[in-house]
Amino acid sequence: MEDFELSGNLDLAQNFVDSIKSGRFLFSFVISYTETSEIPGITFAGADKDSIQFTPPADAEYLHYGYCKTIDKIPMTPDGKPTPGILTKTALESASISHLTINAGSKITPQLPFIESGLPFGKNISVEDAMSDSIVSRAVEYGQILGRSLASLTDCLMIGECIPGGTTTALALLKALDFDAKVSSSIPDNPVELKNQIVSSALERIDSEHPYSIVAKIGDPMIPFVAGMLCSASSVSKVMLAGGTQMAAVLAFASKIGFNEENTAIGTTSYITNDKSANFSELVQDIADIPIISVDPGMKNSKFSGLKAFSEGFAKEGVGAGGSIISSMIKTGNNSETFLNLVEKEYQRLFT
Amino acid sequence: MEDFELSGNLDLAQNFVDSIKSGRFLFSFVISYTETSEIPGITFAGADKDSIQFTPPADAEYLHYGYCKTIDKIPMTPDGKPTPGILTKTALESASISHLTINAGSKITPQLPFIESGLPFGKNISVEDAMSDSIVSRAVEYGQILGRSLASLTDCLMIGECIPGGTTTALALLKALDFDAKVSSSIPDNPVELKNQIVSSALERIDSEHPYSIVAKIGDPMIPFVAGMLCSASSVSKVMLAGGTQMAAVLAFASKIGFNEENTAIGTTSYITNDKSANFSELVQDIADIPIISVDPGMKNSKFSGLKAFSEGFAKEGVGAGGSIISSMIKTGNNSETFLNLVEKEYQRLFT
Fold it and tell me: Is there a contact between A153 and B24 if contact means CB atoms under 8 Å apart?
């Protein structure tokens, strides 16, 4: 476990890792969408403005097929750096961990069987409410239903997400719930000013302290849905929120509706926990007394610039990469060197 | 196990039952639709003509919530006899077996999270092809994807279905594949002549021996989808096809694309295996060398006429009732007397 760094509740962290070692894992991949992602300069999760909406289904397709159906190539940044899904796919496959895709408001549905929640996508929070209160209620309720079902089928339910623009809605929710959040970004030169400006104008619309009303006004559909999943699933099995900033927002909202801290951990990459422009570990500890498991995916040693880029701040996290790598290493005993090797093979398969 | 009757491959039957005793079960409920159900007199799966299309989602909702959202009451026959889902729900709940709903061409989607295949509903085979060959290919492919995923999460994957009018499309497929089928019905006075007439006109359109082409012309979307599930799932875990005639049709189609017989069983009620107007056990043995497990749900001893009706030929099977009862009894050790008791409680909850 030399490649892991544990923080937060350390007793629970060791217990969490020990208790899932010999168990079954299931990776659930929640795709969603917020029109906030259409604000120029807010996200790199897509080769250009028009392709951002295809990133969530394309990531799901890539995880499953090894190629995409909705778009020609795998999702990448405007300058061609690949989706963190490449880390997730390698992690899950090398450990034979199965996965299911869940649509919680993606604008485009993926071309594979997926779990449908029937939720609409979120609106642009810089100009209007993300969704209605009743959509939030349904997101929480359906998340709870699904979380219970999936948790009963596994010993450790991992939940990852893909929602371009989601760090901005996450930041808004965290601020609205009074957490001192400085969030990470898919862009190395984190567009903090732009995000803060959007968040400020969104926060002005808040007129109630009810968490459902708050997330309806300034959040996105992924947040209440995954919080609902966590809430029910953590009463049945271990749950690993696989992600960075967005999962901190899920945790913040879930802390308002209640969940079992003893069965919950957040798993992410060291690119998130070491991000100086953000304050991830402090933020999570501020929200909940749960373990934070961080893994160094080892990409700084890659011979490919497209992989090295992850260690340089591009798409530091996403598609549940960190949590998937952690679970994969726990299950297989692989270290980051072996993992890098496998990722490089997958990279070569894709790009040469 | 005194309430079970084993037939077909008896060695495999005992092995099947023994190997799932201490394992995990998952019930997958596949809902679908064929416009063939709109032919007057063909099905009792709905209180009237207009409500037939709501029966599949309503059964899914009832299984989950204990009440329906899409319609006011639970699905029933025109004269008020309840859905066999009442048996399924009682069986699954009493054994804490979790379930997932899968939409494989239902006209109406259920109001709960479900797995979406994106398949269209089937057309009326008395007048036109049920679907295109490419839809059949997608049904098989998506079924395979899902079957693999679900089987990896359990030791015994049960597959049940709800497709009103489905015994007619099942009959057509069985005849087209040259099996001597006399199929059961949701109606005690099985409208055999009407069914045979529909089937004859449908068979005339067949112009190829390719099984994909045949099922496209005279089947329904459920058949290739569930066959795809069986095909991949049976290489990973035990699979119990929970149903009667429709599952015989699935088995017939699956035998053309290949599946693992050693991991497969068909589980149904004695109301099906004892149905003199049909020839279920012979038919299944003709198709595949697998175990047939039949259970007497014990409804003939019920004090409620609505439950007694199941033993009198109304909705002899459906919503995977037989297979669910079998799995439930294997897991809990309950016999049919205890089971009847539990069903009567559920019946009282619903109707008094």
Answer: yes
Q: How far is A130 from chain B (nearest CA, A)?
A: 21
A177 near A217, Cβ under 8 Å?
A: no
* Token pair for A248: 């901190």
Residue B147: which domain range?
4-351
Residues B27, B158 contacting (CB under 8 angstroms): yes
CA B220 → CA A97, B41, B227, B323, distances in Å?
33, 19, 12, 22
Give the per-residue pLDDT at B315: 80
Name every chain A residue with its beta carbon within 8 A of the beta carbon of B64. 145
Residues of chain B with Cβ-Cβ distance to A30 below 8 Å are none
The confidence score (pLDDT) of residue A103 equals 98
> How far apart (Å, rounded) are the C-alpha atoms in residues A89 and A83?
10
Rg of chain B taking only CA atoms, in angstroms: 18
Residue A1 has pLDDT above 80, yes or no: no
Q: Do A115 and B115 touch (CB under 8 A)?
A: yes
User: Cβ neighbours of residue B278 under 8 Å, at least 6 residues apart?
Assistant: B181, B182, B183, B184, B190, B244, B245, B272
The verdict on a CB contact (< 8 Å) between B109 and A116 is yes
Distance CA A19, CA A27 (A): 17
Task: Please check whether residue A69 lies inside any domain of the structure.
Answer: yes
* Contact (CB<8Å) B142/A113: yes
Q: CA-to-CA distance for A204 and A219, rounded, in angstroms?
A: 13
Cβ within 8 Å, pair A142-B112: yes
Binning pLDDT at 50, 70 and 90, where does residue B324 land?
very high
Does B152 sit within 8 Å of A113, measured CB to CB? no
Q: Does A146 touch chain B if contact means CB atoms closer than 8 Å?
A: yes
Residue A160 forms beta bridges with which residues? A29
Q: How far apart are CA A241 and CA A237, in angstroms?
A: 13
**How many structural domains does chain A have?**
1
Q: Do A113 and B114 touch (CB under 8 A)?
A: no
Decide: helix, strand or coil at residue A142.
helix
Whether A34 maps to a domain, the answer reads yes
| Residue A154: per-residue pLDDT | 96
CA distance B44 to B76: 8
Q: Is B27 on the interface with A (CB under 8 A)?
A: no
pTM for this entry: 0.95
The answer to the question of residue A347 being in a domain is no
Q: What amino acid is encoded at A215 in this protein?
A: V
Q: Computed from CA positions of residues A111, B255, B219, B233, in that sequence, does the dihedral angle turn out positive or negative?
A: negative
Kindly report, residue by residue over B104-122, the tens digit of the pLDDT. Answer: 999 999 999 999 999 999 9
Distance CA(A261)–CA(A243), nearest Å, equals 17
CB nearest to A145's CB, from B112, B115, B145 = B112
Contacts of A138 in chain B (CB under 8 A): none
Q: For position A82, which CATH number holds? A: 3.40.50.10210
Instruction: Give the phi and the psi of residue B243 in degrees, each rounded to 5.
Output: 165, 180
Which member of A116, A146, A153 has the closest CB to residue B154? A153
Nearest to A115 among B24, B113, B148 (CB): B113
Contacts of A50 (CB under 8 A, 6+ apart): none
* ipTM score for this prediction: 0.93
Whether residue A350 lies inside any domain: the answer is: no
Look at residue B1 and tell me whether its pLDDT is greater than 80. no
Interface test with B, best of A70, A116, A141, A232 (most B CBs within 10 A): A116
